[in-house]
Specification:
It contains eleven helices and eight strands. It is of the alpha+beta class. It has three domains: 166 residues, Regulatory protein AraC (Jelly Rolls, Sandwich), CATH 2.60.120; 44 residues; 53 residues, Orthogonal Bundle (Arc Repressor Mutant, subunit A). A hairpin with a 5-residue loop joins strand 1 and strand 2. Helix 2 crosses helix 4, helix 5 packs parallel to helix 8 and helix 9 packs across helix 10.
């Protein structure tokens, strides 16, 4: 059986009325294939992938057969398919909605290397095709939506890398090492770049190139040294800039863009969470 990309698997059976699917590739993760879909009638034929399959059902129930065994996935479950394993997929009852990614060997091997501190022996595999893990299922859904909808690369990349590391550590055949070692010089270089580019839409790939660390290693080392992830640090610096501009008499409506926030609502949430009041009230009190 020839492996198929997820796009090919969908193309082989066009969607019926009531079914919907959004497929895209994420260039920041090596053209990672991503899918958000709702299926009431769509049935996948038996097929395989060259990649892994990682995802979760967000509504309803998906039935599938994998390696001759029947499984059912429901909300709160994480789903895994190892490369080259034959599987199908079909709705139960009123159907299901799910979010999936199709990571390459290279992407997961890099993450596994960062977690363990060494190159994994053999091929990484997931222990079970379906596991009930409400916590990580919710985190994965949030990260997947961020990749789909967010125009801010840094928080979306952080969220997906962090949940993937937790998924690998909890559900893959993988020896997880202890706490990461601090990389002070690398973190300092990434920190200084963020501080100098507060208003820019910085992504993790850029920071990783500057620091000389992988993206996931940088997140852990940065948090260990700074107490914040790179994105949290950037938001904190944007709030500082917004506070300074407000004290200088600038109107809140213009400060949001000047401080690098996506919009005024985003600035208001971040500002209130750190200063204890909204930008408008802060400006009036100043």
């Amino acid at each position: 059986m020839n492996p198929k990309s997820q796009a090919e698997a969908l193309e082989n059976a066009p969607l019926n009325a009531g079914d919907s699917a959004k497929f895209w590739r994420e260039p920041r993760f090596g053209d990672l294939e991503c899918l958000a879909a709702r299926f009431r009638t769509h049935i996948y034929e038996r097929h395989t992938h060259e990649t892994y399959v990682i995802g979760c059902v967000t509504a309803g129930c998906e039935q599938f057969e994998l390696a001759g065994i029947q499984y059912a996935a429901r909300p709160g479950d994480l789903c895994f398919v190892n490369p080259e394993v034959v599987h199908d997929g079909r709705p139960e009852g009123d159907g299901y909605a799910y979010r999936m990614i199709y990571p390459s060997h290279a992407l997961l091997a890099d993450l596994a290397r960062d977690i363990t501190g060494s190159t994994p022996n053999g091929t990484l595999t997931f222990r079970s095709p379906v596991v009930h893990d409400h916590e990580l299922s919710a985190e994965f859904t949030k990260a997947h939506r961020a990749l789909e909808n967010s125009h801010a690369a840094l928080p979306a990349d952080e969220a997906m890398l962090q949940v993937l590391e937790r998924i690998l550590g909890r559900h893959a055949q993988l020896a997880v090492s202890g706490k990461p070692h601090g990389e002070r010089r690398a973190v300092r270089e990434a920190r200084d770049y963020l501080a100098a580019n507060v208003t820019e839409n910085v992504d993790l790939a850029t920071l990783a190139g500057i620091s000389g660390l992988s993206r996931s290693h940088l997140i852990r080392a940065f948090k260990l040294e700074m107490g914040l992830t790179p994105h949290a640090f950037l938001v904190d610096r944007r709030v500082r800039l917004a506070r300074k501009l407000l004290l200088g008499g600038d109107a809140p409506v213009s400060v949001a863009a000047a401080a690098g926030f996506a919009d005024q609502a985003h600035m208001t949430r971040a500002f209130k969470a750190r200063i204890g009041t909204t930008p408008g009230r802060f400006a009036r009190m100043s």
